[in-house]
């Protein structure tokens, strides 16, 4: 389900408004938003000091939007859009970007798909033309479908051979079991083998339409020129571009997403055991998400974090350990990870559990709080200086959250987090039975299950 959700923080129109545009200066750069005929949204950030531009074409469709029998269709389609259009072959698409020293790629998430390019500012018209051609006019040739099916099956096999990737996938599936967010983005070998070209064409036509398309760009650019290029590409494709048409509404958060805590052991013939312990997190609209980010950083966000110090530096139990979060419209996940020798799994698991409990039960020190906030703010500012990051910020704000926070406003929200807020969010999310996933040798799985019984057993 989707609904109209107004932008907050900056006075931009709501997702379903046909308002022709808005402009504002934020962080020293001019940001503009225009709704073109057909409901196509264009957002740009003009950064004259750069010599490059990052461009993205977004649609609000991801793995969560698929039917169970079509799992992986969105990611499959992402591959196919690089295989050729009515006027360009796959080679033509690749050569166009290579010839100007640019790069192009795409990403499929659980709730959106983005096709992006990064080029010199002089080559922005070329990049816009090619990306719009891919998004609007892919031929989905039957031979390409079969070729790319084999490529994706290899991609899935590669992921299944990576025990850390497998642990994260199984953790997400377990915590969110029963909700569309639990689906793996790439699908399964069985679903990919069964997907027909007709199903791909249906998926393409349902989601790649004017009202669904969002184009974002950041760098040395002229907003009106980007709008003209996008409109020209859509018209060349023969899209129906109705004046005054409204964009598609943003997704609504309309269901609970968490499954009961459990323990899942996945035997694999690996040298190490890979552990993830955690559970629910916060949604991407929850005001506590800033406190959670600070809490996660204190717990496992760097070399000075509690997990790194306790597990690696003091005890030598593992080389790699960290904490992580992911947030969606309905909620999110929070987890801790470590990889270790099979004989150390119970000791590592005890430290993971103890540090999670300590964060929930004891106030963090002023030094830890300041260090975590400084780490987050520094990383955020450094990342924000890249045109790709600025383009992505615009896309996520328009497609996913409906909120565009400036860099300074974001920093202020992190800096305002208190020790009490960190403990409160940790107490809410880290108290109670967690979900545990272990991937590794059978002896490690058996040791974990004996040491850490399934909740309720």
Structure, explained:
The structure is a single chain. This protein has 457 residues and is an alpha+beta fold. It has 2 domains: 2-248, Metalloenzyme, LuxS/M16 peptidase-like (Cytochrome Bc1 Complex, Chain A, domain 1); 263-451, 2-Layer Sandwich (Cytochrome Bc1 Complex, Chain A, domain 1). 43% of the residues lie in helices and 19% in strands. It has a 7-stranded mixed beta sheet, with helices on both faces. The protein has a 5-stranded mixed beta sheet with strand order 10-14-11-13-12, with helices on both faces. A two-stranded antiparallel ribbon has the order 1-9. A hairpin with a 2-residue loop joins strand 2 (21-26) and strand 3. Helix 1 (73-80) packs across helix 7 (197-207) and helix 10 (306-314) runs antiparallel to helix 11 (345-361). The model is unreliable at 1-18 (pLDDT under 50).
CATH hierarchy, class of the largest domain = Alpha Beta
Report Rg: 23 Å
What string, H for helix and E for strand, traces the elements in order? EEEEEHHEEHHHHHEHEEEHHEEHHHHHEH
Total strands:
14
> Biggest β-sheet, characterized?
7 strands, mixed
Number of helices: 16
Question: Beta fraction of the residues?
Answer: 15-25%
Name given to the CATH homologous superfamily of the largest domain: Metalloenzyme, LuxS/M16 peptidase-like
């Amino acid at each position: 389900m989707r609904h109209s959700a107004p932008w907050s923080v900056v006075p931009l129109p709501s997702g379903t408004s046909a308002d022709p545009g808005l402009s504002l200066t934020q962080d020293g750069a001019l940001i503009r938003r225009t709704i073109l005929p057909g409901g196509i949204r264009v957002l740009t950030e003009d950064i004259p000091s750069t010599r490059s531009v990052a461009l993205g074409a977004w649609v609000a469709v991801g793995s969560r939007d698929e039917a169970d029998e079509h799992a992986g269709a969105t990611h499959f389609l992402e591959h196919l859009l690089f295989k050729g259009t009515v006027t360009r072959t796959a080679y033509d698409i690749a050569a166009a970007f290579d010839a100007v020293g640019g790069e192009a790629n795409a990403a499929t998430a659980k709730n959106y798909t983005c096709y992006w390019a990064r080029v010199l500012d002089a080559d922005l018209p070329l990049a816009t033309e090619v990306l719009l051609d891919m998004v609007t006019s892919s031929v989905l040739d039957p031979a390409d479908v079969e070729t790319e099916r084999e490529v994706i099956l290899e991609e899935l096999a590669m992921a299944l051979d990576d025990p850390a990737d497998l642990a994260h996938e199984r953790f997400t599936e377990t915590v969110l079991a029963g909700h569309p967010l639990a689906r793996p983005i790439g699908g399964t070998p069985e679903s990919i083998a069964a997907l027909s070209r007709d199903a791909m064409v249906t998926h393409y036509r349902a989601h790649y339409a004017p009202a669904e398309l969002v184009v974002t760009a950041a760098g040395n650019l002229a907003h009106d020129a980007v709008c003209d290029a996008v409109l020209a590409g859509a018209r060349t494709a023969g899209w129906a571009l109705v004046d005054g048409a409204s964009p598609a509404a943003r997704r609504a958060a309309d269901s609970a997403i968490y499954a009961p805590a459990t323990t899942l052991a996945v035997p694999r013939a690996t040298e190490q055991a890979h552990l993830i312990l955690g559970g629910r997190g916060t949604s991407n609209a929850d005001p506590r998400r800033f406190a959670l980010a600070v809490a996660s950083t204190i717990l496992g966000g760097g070399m000075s974090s509690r997990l790194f110090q306790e597990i690696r530096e003091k005890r030598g139990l593992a080389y790699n350990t960290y904490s992580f979060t992911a947030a969606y419209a309905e909620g999110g996940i929070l987890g801790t990870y470590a990889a270790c020798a099979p004989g150390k799994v119970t000791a590592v698991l005890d430290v993971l559990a103890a540090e999670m409990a300590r964060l929930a039960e004891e106030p963090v020190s002023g030094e830890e709080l300041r260090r975590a906030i400084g780490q987050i703010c520094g990383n955020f500012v450094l990342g924000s200086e890249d045109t790709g990051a600025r383009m992505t910020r615009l896309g996520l704000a328009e497609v996913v959250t409906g909120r565009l926070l400036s860099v300074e406003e974001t920093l202020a929200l992190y800096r305002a987090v208190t020790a009490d807020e960190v403990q409160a969010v940790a107490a809410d999310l880290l108290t109670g039975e967690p979900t545990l996933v272990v991937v590794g040798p059978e002896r490690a799985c058996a040791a974990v299950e004996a040491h850490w019984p399934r909740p309720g057993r």
